Structure formats: C-alpha cells, structure tokens
C-alpha cells in the first residue's frame, strides 16, 4: 500500500451519572461509522467533513460535562494501515442487508403499491446508512449494490408492470417544433419517471400534448409517441432513464435546475446519487396515489411540485456558482 491513511482519534470521558448523554454520543459515533479501539477511544478516517463533525461533537461533550481529545495521525506502516482499515469492513452488515432483501423480495407480489413504496423507502434508507459509512469499498460493496438494484427492479416490476429495460443507443438532438400537438402514450398508474417525463413534455416540448395512459404497451396507438416502455420512441438508453433521455433529446439538459431534477428522478427510478429532496417527492406522490387520484389528476398535482422543485434546484445551482466565484 503506497499511501498511508490519515485518521482521526477521539478519546473521550463522559459523566458516569448521565446515562442519557452516554447513549446519545454512542449512537452518534456509531452513525458516523467510528470504530471502537477500546472503551472511550474511537477511530475514523480523516476528512474535511469528518473533522468538522467530530470537532463539533467535542464541543458538545464538553458542554455535557465530559472531556474529549481529538487527534490526527497517519498509519505507521502498511501493516497498521491494513489493520485499521479492517475495522471498517462492512461485509457483515451488507450480508445481513442482502439476506433481508432476499427474504423481503419473496413477499412483494402480495403487497399493495403503498406497502411496496413504504418498503422501498425503508430499505433504501438501510442501504444508504451502510453505504454512507463504507469508507473503503470492496467486493462486498459491489455485491450489496447489485442486490439493492435487483431488489428495486423487482419492486418496480410489481409496482409498475412493463418497466423498460435499458437499451444501448445514441440520443439524437430533435427539433421541438416537429413535436407539437401530438399524442403521447405511456403505461397507466403513473410513477416517478413517467409522471416527470409527462411534465417535461408538456412544459418544455409540446404545450398542447395529449396523453393516453395504456393498460399495456401493446395498446399504444400507431400515431402516438410512446415513452417509458420497451420499444417506445423515448425510453431508457444506456444509463439514462426516460426523463433524462427526453431532456437530452430536446436540448433541455442545460435548463436551470434540470441537473438536480434529473438526479432526483434517476435516483428514485433506478437508484444512484442520494438526493435529499427525493424522499419528499416520493412521499407526496405516494400520498397522492393513496387519495385515489387518476393519472390525469396525478399529473396535474405533481406538475406543480415539479415546477417548484425545478425552481429550487435552479436556486441551489445559482448559489453554488456564486460560492465558486
């Protein structure tokens, strides 16, 4: 191993008569992925965010009547580095998650859409909690990611029958003026990628678009533009979901806020970069379906939220650009 790892070492003592504080800090350290070297001595890979968070914890420990010392050091040699890194191996945690996903997958066919959505939200949280403290990814990481993606695909197959498979191809730039006043068709019982795609079509491509919600992709009229099913005019290509393919096809990718919105839709549809806003969008959409809205009503309601999220992501981009200057 050519480069040794930089580490943070936290040594702390807490008042013995404050069990609540001891439990609070123990949970906080566990959630950050700290390894326990011995009672009151914790190890964590160094990093800008880790150092800041641990520094804040030291201040909090002092306010609670305890003492703490935060030190930085580098591994002495390769043997010590490997020993310390082994303390952060998440293989066992990933294995437990994979077993849970395998068992849960067998029950999907008997669950309601709302139950599946809730289950996806919970299992995503469990997976991301482990991935967030997986400082040294290895083969166990790859296997867990694959298991998670397979589970999401299985859930989507029950939640949204006819979910498209990824196709290889080139995305060509199209002229919006040639796609006006058209009929656009996709599978009924809209979910994230389809509702976001329909919103994008109506807002940026074809303001007079008419939509047909299909019981089966085979029912797509010959004169309609299909989207988000195998064989459709617009569907998953390479590593992009239908929303991203439409944005690229019609030159919408550079619209302010579109990058953040694309990340959100992608993560909810097939997984990927964790987007904090995704949980809120998913919760609102789940609630809308539980209220019994039909697809037209669902599109109208979620379009307002997508308008607001686009403005939100545009403001985030603008703020980030200002900070870089």
Any chance you could write out the topology, listing elements then pairs?
Blueprint: E1 6-13, H1 19-31, E2 35-38, E3 41-45, H2 48-63, E4 67-74, H3 78-86, H4 91-105, H5 113-131, H6 139-159, E5 183-187, H7 192-205, E6 210-214, E7 225-226, H8 242-249, H9 258-270, H10 276-290, H11 295-324
Parallel strand pairs: 5-6, 5-7
Antiparallel strand pairs: 1-3, 1-4, 2-3
Helix pairs in contact: 4-5, 4-6, 5-6, 7-8, 7-11, 9-10, 9-11, 10-11
The total strand number stands at 7
Strand order of the largest sheet: 2-3-1-4
Q: What is the CA-based Rg, rounded?
A: 24 Å
Shape: elongated
- Portion of residues in beta strands equals 5-15%
Distance between the termini: 38 Å
Please state the average pLDDT score. 91
Structural class: alpha/beta
| Fraction of residues in H or I helices | 40-55%
Residue runs with pLDDT of under 50 for 5 or more positions: none
**How many domains, as an integer?**
3
The main β sheet shows up as: 4 strands, antiparallel
Count of alpha and pi helical runs: 11
Name the helix and strand elements from N-terminus to C-terminus, one letter apiece: EHEEHEHHHHEHEEHHHH
Summed up:
This protein is an alpha/beta fold.
Task: Write up this protein.
- The structure is a single chain.
- The protein has 325 residues and is of the alpha/beta class.
- It folds into three domains: 6-86, Alpha-Beta Plaits; 91-159, no CATH class; 176-324, no CATH class.
- The chain has eleven helices and seven strands.
- Helix 7 (192-205) runs parallel beside helix 8 (242-249) and helix 10 runs antiparallel to helix 11.
- The chain starts with 5 loop residues before the first strand and ends with a helix.
């Amino acid at each position: 191993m050519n480069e040794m790892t930089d580490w943070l070492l936290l040594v702390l003592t807490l008042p013995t008569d404050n069990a609540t504080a001891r439990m609070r800090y123990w949970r906080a350290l566990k959630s950050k992925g700290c390894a326990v070297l011995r009672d009151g001595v914790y190890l964590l890979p160094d990093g800008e965010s880790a150092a800041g968070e641990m520094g804040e914890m030291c201040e909090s420990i002092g306010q609670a009547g305890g003492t703490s010392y935060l030190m930085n050091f580098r591994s002495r040699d390769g043997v010590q580095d490997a020993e310390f890194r082994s303390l952060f191996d998440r293989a066992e945690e990933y294995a437990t998650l994979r077993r849970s996903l395998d068992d849960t997958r067998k029950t999907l066919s008997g669950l309601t859409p709302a139950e599946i959505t809730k289950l996806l939200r919970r299992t995503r949280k469990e997976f991301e909690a482990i991935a967030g403290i997986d400082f040294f990814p290895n083969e166990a990481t790859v296997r867990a990611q694959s298991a998670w993606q397979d589970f999401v695909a299985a859930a989507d197959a029950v939640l949204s029958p006819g979910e498209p498979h990824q196709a290889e191809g080139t995305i060509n730039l199209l002229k919006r003026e040639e796609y006006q006043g058209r009929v656009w068709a996709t599978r009924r019982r809209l979910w994230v990628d389809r509702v976001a795609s329909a919103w994008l079509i109506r807002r940026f491509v074809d303001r007079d678009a008419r939509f047909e919600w299909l019981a089966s992709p085979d029912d797509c009229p010959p004169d309609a533009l299909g989207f988000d099913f195998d064989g459709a005019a617009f569907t998953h290509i390479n590593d992009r979901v239908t929303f991203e393919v439409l944005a690229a096809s019609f030159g919408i990718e550079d619209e302010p806020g579109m990058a953040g919105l694309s990340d959100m839709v992608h993560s909810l549809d097939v997984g990927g970069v964790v987007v904090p806003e995704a949980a809120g969008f998913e919760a609102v959409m789940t609630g809308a379906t539980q209220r019994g809205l039909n697809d037209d009503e669902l599109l109208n309601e979620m379009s307002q939220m997508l308008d607001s999220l686009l403005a939100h992501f545009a403001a985030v981009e603008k703020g980030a650009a200002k900070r870089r200057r």
